Amino acid sequence: GFSVSIYDVTSRSICLRWPKFSGASSYRVTATAVNTVGHSLLSHFSDVTLKGTVTSLIPNTIYAIQAEAIDKNGLILAETQIMQSTAPDIPVIEQAYSKLSNSITVEWRAVLGATSYLLTAQDGDSFTETVVTNSPGTVTGLKPATLYRITIRSINSGGKSQPSPFRKAKTVLAAPILSVSSPSCDSIAVSWKAVYMAAGFSVSLMRSDGLGRMLKENTTNTSLIFTNLDPGTLYTIKAYAWNVNGIPGDDFTCNQRTSPKTPADVQVAFNSGALRAIVSWMPTEGALTYSVTASSGLLKLKCNTSSASCMVPSLQCGSEYYVSVTAYNDAGSSKPTDAVSLKTIPCAPVNVSIEEDEPGHLLVSWSSVNFGHYYVVFVKSDDGLEVRCNTSHTQCHFQSDCGFTYFISVFAYNKTGQSPLGDVFNYTTAPCCPGDIRAAVVSSDTLRVTWAPVRGAEMYATRARGGSGEVLCNHTAAACTLSALRCDTRYDITVYSFSEARGSNTSCAPEIKNISKETLSVISVHWQSNNKEATYIVTARGEAGLWHCTSSGNSCTLINLPCGSAFSVSAIARSPAGQSLPSYSVPLETAPCCPNELILTQVTQSVTNISWSVGMGAQTYVTALESPKGQAKCHTLQNYCLLGCITCGTNYTVSLKAISETGLTSSCTYQGYSSSACCPSGVKLYRLGNNGIRVHWRASDEKINYNTDLHGSKGNFTCTPSSGLSRCDITEIPCGDVYTVVVSPVTDKGPKLTFCPKKIYS
Is 578's pLDDT higher than 70? Predict the structure, then answer.
């Protein structure tokens, strides 16, 4: 029950501990080197000592350790033995130094038997330890610019040696943390915060692509600026601090691009039609994007692009814009280019006025517009003739003729182009004066005055002055009859032309009130009778001819009007005083004509084609076949139609409706139609030797007779069985051929039916 354990091991000692053993008055420990002859150490301990150290051992040596419990008589009560190696010898530090602000590197001579080493850096009460396998070793996680006591212990499987004599080493300075920017296209500004224990700083700069030379500056300040750099170029900046002994600390490296150079050779091209400008420039080194600004007063228009041109839309006419270009990259922006002036096209002139200052002369005037260098006025008459006037003033004179309407447009121009189209004005000159006036005496109190019509006149006024009064006549025609004049009197006759209508027609003519259709060819015309002595004549006029009816009342009937025709119906009144002017015409349309010909052709057993001749005045047609078994109907613009769902062997009534463009309808009936007899079903073929065939079928009706036809390349054969039979034998047909077999009903008239099902026989 007696045992010992290892408490601690060093290079030259092993510390043991054991439990108290009953009856023991002392303990004896013997350490014997296993591989070394004659090296044995003996130590005695009292009964109150439960832990003891054996010293003066050989480093890196395995010992057999025997512990004995002894009573007061010197007898051994119990004993135990264990094996334990001493730690390697104590290393000796050759040098300790710092290359980084958070670490110290230690160098030493290797120790025999050491498998690893424990490095310790002490700063006051603070310890930092690191286990390494060989020299040199580095302790990390240290503070910058701090003095440390460095020790080292060797380690093997037995334990750790005692610490080596310490060496002092100081960590180097921390790196300055740089803030960089490019205040201009050829400079980079560098700044940093103060570094603890730093006496000065060294900052170097070089192009990242390795071109050019390196720039280096030493300073005690915390900022500096590198100038005369290449615009838009990426630079690498490196900086470190040094202490009073000139020892450099950690370095800090970063990249910074200079801002781009101001773009050059800015060109502005203006599109007058679209009121937009295309701005272009020479690309600049290192620029990622460009921004174009067009400023006019408080208005600013922008466009952004990554190419070397940009379109600025929505420019305003009559404005001057100052266009500049700025280049951008991740470092910032260049200086804007010198502004390029862009004057847009002038706006369309306004306040246009047109005056006829004297007959034959038009004066066109307008207000001046911004950037309008000169103006062009286009004057086009209604006969197509156009003249123009170029001027730098704000008015133009034109020759004009009477009775014309002139269309006037005013444009402003400058070097950029033509203004947009403004309002188009029209001006109508006074009508020409009537000429070639002639007066002829009709009776003692009546004169007829005629003259040549003149351009622009919409109405004429004829005035006859003579005796003690005057007579006035207004008319739109170039003639006027002056009545109720005094006989044997001289009159002065003047004819005036007017461009606006004055007055109304005072003729008394009948007015057609209503037209009603009695039948398709009988039309009743009604009017308002306003003269009991008058006889009324109604005329229907159309491409088909003239039809008349006469009445002294307020209606008459037009008969035998042709179908599908259009007429214009008017009426006149006749009385002993003379004939009235005709009434206003009323349009009349008769119902369309029925087609003269209608043909039905059976296409298949259930489909029939129906066609017809064109009906005069008809636009669409509705055809129908009706029977007790059902109806087939079609509405079409054509003169033919396919009707489906026809039942075979059925009698149908045939009807057709012809419909005009305005919806008038004629219902037409035709002779009835019988669909073909039904084809047989269940057709089967049986061989009768090499040159015979029996055809068998099921008849759709016992009263129907059928034909059997064989068609082959070596001949055609027909068989008609006796009435009521549903089979047929065909013999003596050439062998070695493929035949098409058709069984179809026998028709009284017309060709054989070709749409019954076919069978192939080989």
Answer: no
Model pLDDT for residues 5-47, shown as the tens digit of each residue:
999 999 999 999 999 988 888 999 999 998 877 678 888 888 8
Cβ atoms within 10 Å of 70's Cβ, excluding its own = 20
**207 exposed, middle or buried (CB, 10 Å; 0-12, 13-18, 19+)?**
middle
CA–CA distance, 620 with 641 (Å, rounded to integer): 12
Q: What does the alpha-carbon distance between residue 50 and residue 17 come to, in Å, rounded to a whole number?
A: 6
Residues in the chain: 762
Cis geometry, peptide bond prior to residue 176 (ω within 30 degrees of 0) = no
> Whose structure tokens read 């801002």?
259
Measure Cα distances from 449 to 412, 456, 506 in Å: 51, 20, 19
CATH number of 438-504: 2.60.40.10
- Spatial CB neighbours of 542, under 8 Å, sequence gap ≥ 6: 565, 566, 567, 568
In this structure, are residues 285 and 256 in contact, taking their beta carbons and an 8 Å threshold?
no
Output the CA torsion 273→277→278→284 (10° steps).
180
Strand ordering across the sheet containing 640-643: 598-602, 608-612, 640-643
pTM, full prediction: 0.50
* CA distance linking residue 131 with residue 638, whole number of Å: 106
Spatial CA neighbour of 163 closest among 192, 135, 122, 199: 122
CATH architecture type of domain 350-429: Sandwich (2.60)
Q: Who wins on pLDDT, 649 or 702?
A: 649
CATH code for the part of the protein at 681-761: 2.60.40.10
Q: Which DSSP helix (H) or strand (E) runs through 15? A: strand 14-17
Would you say residue 373 has pLDDT above 90? Answer: yes
- Count CB neighbours of 79 within 10 A: 14
Per CATH, 5-85 and 178-257 having the same topology is answered: yes
Q: Which CATH architecture has domain 511-589?
A: Sandwich (2.60)
pLDDT over 80 at 589, yes or no: yes
Residue-wise DSSP of 521-590: S-EEEEEE---TT-EEEEEEEETTEEEEEEESSSEEEE--PPTT-EEEEEEEEEETTEEPPPPPPEEEEP
Strand partners, 757: none
The CATH topology of domain 264-343 is Immunoglobulin-like (2.60.40)
Picking from 316, 330, 219, the residue whose alpha carbon sits closest to that of residue 276 is 316
